[in-house]
Amino acid sequence: MRKLLASLAITMGAVGAAHADLQADADAAAGREKAQSCAACHGQEGISPSGSFPNLAGQQASYLAKQIMDIRDGNRQVAQMAGQVDDFSDQDAWDVAAYFADQDASLGQADPDEELVARGRELYRAGDVSKGIPACAACHTPTGNGIGSAGYPALSGQHTDYTVATLQAFAAGERANDPANIMRDIAAKMSDADMQAVANYVIGLH
């Protein structure tokens, strides 16, 4: 656990330094124009009408820009995004990310099942030492806003189905663009029930 937390701290510093200059030049107004093609799946203002696609509104710009560039460059495989960002420059990616980051995040409604909420809260706030799972809040903050300087995403209000699918992809190694294997290591230690509990907790987190 200590080794993993140390890796998190090192990664935060390195990623933050790399992104600072590009993020400072991001143009949200230009991003709005470039983001028109994103609306069909992610909503006009970044709130997706389908749980299969992530909400982008309020997302950390540093995280979102990285995902756009990783998809463009083939470092992250997303079948639904095939060809969508092939012509994006790095500046386009940052502009679109800045636009969505400026939008108000979605606030969802968690399933009120007491056991499900309790397990989600436990994992998010404290982790599970017996499984070697660190607290989600360490990287994503207690309110789920993420840490922009480290490129850690906001989770607050994210669709449950999308969060579960993402954790499953990390656990299976199907998604591998997480710095230092952080999410692959964590997700591999989570049961399906753990994933569902965390996903249910974050949809109502703010």
Overall description:
This protein is mainly α and 206 residues long. Helix content is 51%, strand content 0%. The chain is built from 10 helices and no strands. The chain has helices at residues 2-24, 28-34, 39-42, 61-73, 90-101, 114-125, 137-140, 160-172, 182-187, 192-203. Helix 2 (28-34) crosses helix 5 (90-101) and helix 6 (114-125) crosses helix 10 (192-203). The chain is globular, with a radius of gyration of 16 Å. The mean pLDDT is 92.
TL;DR?
This is C-type cytochrome. The protein is mostly helical and 206 residues long.
How much is the average pLDDT? 92
Radius of gyration: 16 Å
- Ranges where pLDDT stays below 50 over 5 or more residues in a row are none
Question: How many beta-strand elements?
Answer: 0
Structural class: mainly alpha
**Number of helical segments with 4 or more residues:** 10
Structural descriptors:
206 residues; mainly alpha; 0% strand; signal; Cyt_c-like_dom; periplasm; Cytochrome_c4-like
What layout of secondary structure does this protein have?
Elements: H1 2-24, H2 28-34, H3 39-42, H4 61-73, H5 90-101, H6 114-125, H7 137-140, H8 160-172, H9 182-187, H10 192-203
